[in-house]
TrEMBL record:
GO biological process terms held by the UniProt record: L-histidine biosynthetic process; methionine biosynthetic process; purine nucleotide biosynthetic process; tetrahydrofolate interconversion
Domain Tetrahydrofolate dehydrogenase/cyclohydrolase catalytic: 6-121
Residue intervals of the Tetrahydrofolate dehydrogenase/cyclohydrolase NAD(P)-binding domain: 140-284
GO MF term set: methenyltetrahydrofolate cyclohydrolase activity; methylenetetrahydrofolate dehydrogenase (NADP+) activity
The keyword Nucleus is annotated on this UniProt entry: no
Documented EC number(s): 1.5.1.5, 3.5.4.9
Designated name of the protein: Bifunctional protein FolD
Known function: Catalyzes the oxidation of 5,10-methylenetetrahydrofolate to 5,10-methenyltetrahydrofolate and then the hydrolysis of 5,10-methenyltetrahydrofolate to 10-formyltetrahydrofolate.
Keyword Membrane: no
This protein's UniProt keywords: Amino-acid biosynthesis, Histidine biosynthesis, Hydrolase, Methionine biosynthesis, Multifunctional enzyme, NADP, One-carbon metabolism, Oxidoreductase, Purine biosynthesis
Length: 296
């Protein structure tokens, strides 16, 4: 079997177009423009690239983008004061604090200071609890993007066997909750899992979120399974720096029914889902119906 390639770039463009369409309607019918505030502390080069890209795409879908760049030495008190201001600003519907923060700042404290209704990253403890109890939450962007791609591929996921490799708070755990919410039978695997190859071989859906280049070989994949590769790993090959996932794409594509490539799979969906979450937060804040197909 040669797998169908799930084109995350095209899918993300479709999500952005849906968001842009709904943003235009919000403006036209209600005079509301969703706003996303992104806070960056310090000068981490990768974070600067992400923040620039988020700001650009926010504006492209017709939303307001508010960027707050703070000095690396910013005190916790000053950062919390800014978050408080953004929490109380009616023009701001989504707040994202770019992680990682400099070491002197307590990430949990900062994230939990965000109004959960504006927590478009879905990392606030209230949103974690809402998701775990099957209530309306703000859902972390990367797992939300994976869920959208899986729903698009299969329609209903009900009754499917899903394995999530990785149990981080930002990817693995929320991914497992979302799959459970869609009535999959979910196994969460991690570094202490016994017989990982056999666990993966049972799965109709494999989500790999580990951070180890090409650790899942093709012979772990059940014939016809859908493989979502969240991993982004930089490796040197043939004298060049390349990005590869957590799955060995070439061998997995020979057995899978469908597979996301790296790059061009899950990656582009993350910012698209951030925009979708900002729109959702704006609709909820204004008592309007949530955008169909863009929530969990
Ligand atoms: P973390 O390092 O937080 O978590 C990695 C998980 O993998 C842990 O639960 C760990 O288990 C598990 N693990 C490590 N080694 C093994 C192993 N040999 N077998 C099975 N499980 C193992 O990573 P993240 O969840 O933050 O990210 C995972 C990957 O996804 C990274 O490559 C990251 O770059 C990428 N990523 C991509 C995004 C995107 O937009 N596409 C967004 C976010 C992340 P244990 O808990 O036991 O240590």
């Amino acid at each position: 079997m040669v797998a169908q390639v799930i084109d995350g770039k095209a899918f993300a463009a479709k999500v952005r177009a849906q968001v842009a369409d709904k943003v235009a309607k919000l403006k036209e019918e209600h005079g509301i423009t969703p706003g996303l505030a992104v806070v960056l502390v310090g000068e981490d080069p990768a974070s600067q690239v992400y923040v620039r890209s988020k700001g650009k795409q926010t504006v492209e879908v017709g939303m307001n983008s508010y960027e707050h760049k703070l000095d690396a030495e910013t005190s916790e008190q000053d950062l919390l004061a800014l978050i408080d201001k953004l929490n109380n600003d009616p023009a701001v519907h989504g707040i994202l604090v770019q992680l990682p923060l400099p070491k002197h700042l307590n990430e949990d404290l900062v994230i939990n200071a965000i109004n959960p209704a504006k927590d478009v990253d879905g990392f606030h403890i209230s949103n974690v609890g809402l998701l775990a109890t099957g209530q309306k939450a703000m859902v972390p962007c990367t797992p939300l993007g994976c869920l959208m791609m899986l729903r698009d591929q299969h329609g209903s996921l009900s009754g499917m066997d899903a394995v999530v490799i990785g149990r981080s708070n930002i990817v693995g755990k929320p991914m497992a909750q979302l799959l459970l919410g869609d009535s999959c039978t979910v196994t969460i695997a991690h570094s202490r899992t016994r017989n990982l190859p056999d666990v993966v071989r049972r799965a109709d859906i494999v989500v790999a979120a580990v951070g180890r280049p090409e650790m899942v070989p093709g012979d772990w994949i059940k014939e016809g399974a859908t493989v979502i590769d969240v991993g982004i790993n930089r490796i040197e090959r043939d004298g060049k720096t390349r990005l590869v996932g957590d799955v060995d794409y070439a061998s997995a594509a020979e057995r899978a029914g469908a597979i996301t490539p790296v790059p061009g799979g899950v990656g582009p969906m993350t910012i698209a889902c951030l925009l979708a979450n900002t729109l959702t937060a704006c609709c909820r804040a204004n008592g309007l119906p949530e955008p169909e197909g863009l929530t969990a």
